[in-house]
Amino acid sequence: MPHLIQRVTILGTGLIGGSFALALRKYTPDMYIVGWDRPDVVLEARQRGAIDEGMFASVEAAIRRADLIYIALPIGATLDLLPEIAQHAPSHALVADACSTQLRIEQAAVELFVDEDGPIFLGGHPMAGRELSGFTHADADLFQGGTYALIGAQNESRDPRISAFVKIIEKLGARPVWLEAQQHDYAVGLASHLPQLAAIALGSFLYDRLDENGLPITLAGPGLRDTLRLAGSPYAMWRDIVLTNREVLSAALDLFARRLDDLRERLGSRELEADFDAANELYKLLRSMQ
């Protein structure tokens, strides 16, 4: 019996889309993979064997025969292209995205994918990534051991197209978790987006205080490098994320600022021990999840 998903079109073959292509190639080698991106990007993807065919002109042509259309583009570009994708996707196709915020995507998809006999949409977000972008940094094992958020009720997986996609995710080594879009955006706002902004704030704060001898950075050890790893991410990667999750981020930053104020007030006492204990426990929990 043929698989429901045999031909995949990946729109955007950067870090996530390129890693998805490489992972498909490694763990589901019988699939035919089309990559759509800039000419130089699809050329690199072809040279590394990630895709069978590269396209850079018409989205309509790229998705015309796809069983799975995997959108790995920035959130703004995804929102711009969704109407065209919904119009031209084959009726049997599953359209899945990999955006870092999901509420705006879900709202758009609900209005666009309305034909019961047409393509269906599944929102999703692989909790995998690096501070560096682009296909050059793509990795077939990027999804190994990570959580893959899927948007909607779990009973939606009864659709055979979605069930087939979930099986692919599992073959790539990821663990699917079903969430509502608002729940997802709140969780990643605290666990992913807030740490990013905290790293940016600390990095820019220290940069502004560099002296002619490079102090204080000349005395920095590996702890600061580990702490500021996220600060290596370019703004282009985060612009749409911040814009589409600003309410969650604004509230989180307010609460985090209050926690910093609390720490400042307790600098002269031994009451910081409770904060260290809580942070140590969270760190142990994160280590146990690896």
| Secondary structural class | alpha/beta
* Residues in helix, %: 40-55%
Radius of gyration: 21 Å
Outline the low-pLDDT stretches: none
Number of separate strands: 9
Number of distinct helices? 11
Q: What characterizes the major β-sheet?
A: 6 strands, parallel
In the CATH hierarchy, the third-tier topology of the largest domain is known as Rossmann fold
The figure for the number of domains is 2
CATH top level label of the largest domain = Alpha Beta
CATH architecture of the largest domain: 3-Layer(aba) Sandwich
Concise structural overview:
The chain is of the alpha/beta class and 290 residues long. The chain has helices spanning 15-27, 39-47, 59-63, 75-88, 103-112, 160-171, 181-207, 222-227, 235-244, 246-265, 273-288, and strands at residues 7-11, 32-36, 53-55, 68-71, 94-97, 120-122, 124-126, 147-151, 175-179. It has 11 helices and 9 strands.
